[in-house]
């Protein structure tokens, strides 16, 4: 595989951008190679600047549920752009988008648009704090909620300790307000709530985790979180930045039939443009300025291009009643194919999948939380990733990320990917 142009662009990029990239995971560090610079994409395919072609399972980390450069989305953006790209004043597009989200997502009665998932989660916890007058929050180890100070936290040692910064620059005073529980362990959440009676403003959770690889909730976990929050007056926030419009039009909350108090969105909701949103019960959302006292604003929030890309993406999905069923079928075929390959080659592996989100973990453990995800053989994943790239398959450059199937993936591409998987696994074993 010739990657000369990518390599030289990377060298150049490192002179003017920290680490050569605008978001760390793009640097391919955990798979031990230089990143590929992308020239263009269409449907489920990507082309790098050296002309190599790949079937893409990253989907720009989630948004590309229709594949890349969907003709209807591109045409809608083009049309709206001709009339101006931002006004800093309200537009009908924002109203249409808000109405659509409220119609599709069971627990959302009102919604505020922002520009990224990070902004959405930051705003949602500010709102929970404003509402409850409490300052502490609980998150689960291994869940990612963007790069806000309150979320870049690792668990302190021992159950009694508070969170500590997971990055220089995060004030310890803020870190102490974030307490870390274990995903899929309601006992660990209850223990923290008991130790901090009437002090917890919110519990924020990815209802299906995508950010330690795909880790679905065990039976009862989300239900128990819901009843615990109701009992203790805690705001339950589902971070559906990844799962929203991915697992169903109503997200994970529709799939599992649980109503959180607040929900955060991003990724698919922007149809490939920078968008986030947070929404929930009307009485809670009314606290947001200017209808209430909690301040939150944005120069480009509700931007016409972004609203259009998101609205058109959701409209395309809405037109096909079987959209999610078809997506799930393809994703399942991929899972079954991979599982057969690892079994016949005798490779210890666990596959987690829900809908069109999945991860093949190189571990024999059942992966249900961060601790068990960490039992994966990341060196083997790195070798496998590189071998898949050679086969023309573009996977997430880390073991701890979910892979996505889009409606643009054809059955033929899925079959090709399963054959590539077998070859890549064989090559990985030979190299060990
Ligand atoms: C991607 C992601 C975020 C952060 O969104 P950005 O748009 O990258 O800021 C937050 N929460 C979850 C669950 C995510 O997957």
Tag the structure with descriptive keywords.
Aspartate Aminotransferase, domain 2; binds pyridoxal-5'-phosphate; 4-stranded mixed β-sheet; alpha/beta; 432 residues
CATH class division of the domain at 71-318: Alpha Beta
Task: Tell me the series of helices and strands, N- to C-terminal.
Answer: HEEEHHEHEEEHEHEHEHEEHHHEEHHEEH
- Write down the CATH topology of the domain at 71-318: Aspartate Aminotransferase, domain 2
Average pLDDT figure:
97
- Low-confidence spans: none
Task: Give the helix/strand class.
Answer: alpha/beta
In words, what does this structure look like?
This protein is of the alpha/beta class. Among the domains are: 1-51, no CATH class; 71-318, Aspartate Aminotransferase, domain 2 (3-Layer(aba) Sandwich), CATH 3.40.640.10. The protein has helices at residues 4-16, 71-81, 92-104, 117-132, 172-175, 186-195, 221-232, 251-256, 282-285, 304-318, 323-345, 370-373, 378-390, 411-431, and strands at 38-42, 45-48, 53-56, 110-114, 136-140, 153-154, 164-165, 178-181, 200-205, 235-239, 262-265, 276-280, 350-354, 357-361, 393-394, 403-404. The chain is globular, with a radius of gyration of 21 Å. Pyridoxal-5'-phosphate is lined by residues 116-118, 121, 144-146, 206, 210-211, 239, 241-242, 266, 276.
Give a short overview.
Helices cover 38% and strands 15% of the residues. By secondary structure, it is an alpha/beta fold.
Fold topology:
Blueprint: H1 4-16, E1 38-42, E2 45-48, E3 53-56, H2 71-81, H3 92-104, E4 110-114, H4 117-132, E5 136-140, E6 153-154, E7 164-165, H5 172-175, E8 178-181, H6 186-195, E9 200-205, H7 221-232, E10 235-239, H8 251-256, E11 262-265, E12 276-280, H9 282-285, H10 304-318, H11 323-345, E13 350-354, E14 357-361, H12 370-373, H13 378-390, E15 393-394, E16 403-404, H14 411-431
Parallel strand pairs: 3-15, 5-8, 5-9, 9-10, 10-11
Antiparallel strand pairs: 1-2, 2-3, 4-12, 6-7, 11-12, 13-14, 14-16
Helix pairs in contact: 2-10, 3-10, 6-7, 11-14, 13-14
Bound molecules: pyridoxal-5'-phosphate (PLP).
The site of pyridoxal-5'-phosphate has 15 residues, from helix 4.
């Amino acid at each position: 595989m010739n990657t000369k142009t990518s390599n030289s662009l990377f060298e150049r990029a490192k002179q003017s951008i920290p680490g050569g990239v605008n978001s760390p995971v793009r640097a391919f560090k955990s798979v031990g190679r230089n990143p590929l610079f992308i020239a263009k994409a269409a449907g489920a395919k990507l082309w790098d600047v050296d002309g190599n072609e790949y079937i893409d399972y990253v989907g720009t980390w989630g948004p590309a549920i229709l594949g890349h450069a969907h003709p209807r989305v591109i045409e809608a953006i083009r049309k709206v752009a001709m009339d101006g790209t931002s006004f800093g004043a309200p537009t009908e597009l924002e109203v249409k988008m808000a109405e659509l989200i409220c119609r599709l997502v069971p627990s959302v009665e009102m919604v505020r648009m922002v520009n990224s998932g990070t902004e959405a989660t930051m705003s949602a916890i500010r709102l929970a704090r404003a509402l409850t007058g409490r300052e502490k929050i609980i998150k689960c180890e291994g869940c990612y909620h963007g790069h806000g100070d309150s979320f870049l936290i690792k668990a302190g040692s021992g159950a009694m300790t508070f969170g500590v910064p997971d990055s220089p620059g995060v004030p310890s005073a803020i870190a102490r307000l974030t307490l870390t529980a274990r995903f899929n362990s309601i006992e660990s959440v209850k223990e923290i709530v008991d130790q901090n009676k009437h002090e917890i403003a919110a519990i924020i959770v990815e209802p299906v985790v995508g950010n330690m690889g795909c880790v679905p909730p065990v039976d009862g976990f989300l239900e128990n979180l819901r009843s615990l929050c109701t009992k203790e007056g805690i705001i339950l926030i589902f971070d559906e930045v990844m799962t929203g419009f991915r697992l169903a039009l109503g997200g994970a909350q529709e799939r599992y039939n649980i109503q959180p108090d607040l929900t955060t969105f991003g990724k698919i909701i922007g149809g490939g443009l920078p968008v986030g949103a947070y929404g929930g019960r009307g009485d809670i959302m009314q606290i947001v300025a200017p209808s209430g006292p909690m301040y939150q604003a944005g120069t480009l929030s509700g931007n016409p291009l972004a609203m259009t890309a998101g609205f058109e993406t959701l409209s395309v999905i809405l037109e096909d009643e079987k959209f999610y069923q078809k997506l799930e079928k393809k994703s399942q075929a991929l899972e079954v194919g991979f599982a057969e390959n690892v079994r016949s080659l005798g490779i210890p592996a666990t596959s987690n999948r829900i809908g069109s989100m999945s991860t093949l973990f190189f571990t024999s453990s059942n992966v249900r939380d961060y601790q068990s995800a960490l039992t994966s053989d990341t060196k083997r994943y790195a070798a496998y990733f590189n071998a898949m790239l050679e086969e023309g398959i573009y996977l997430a450059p880390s073991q701890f990320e979910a892979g996505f199937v889009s409606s643009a993936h054809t059955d033929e591409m899925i079959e090709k990917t399963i054959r590539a998987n077998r070859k890549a696994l064989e090559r990985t074993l030979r190299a060990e």
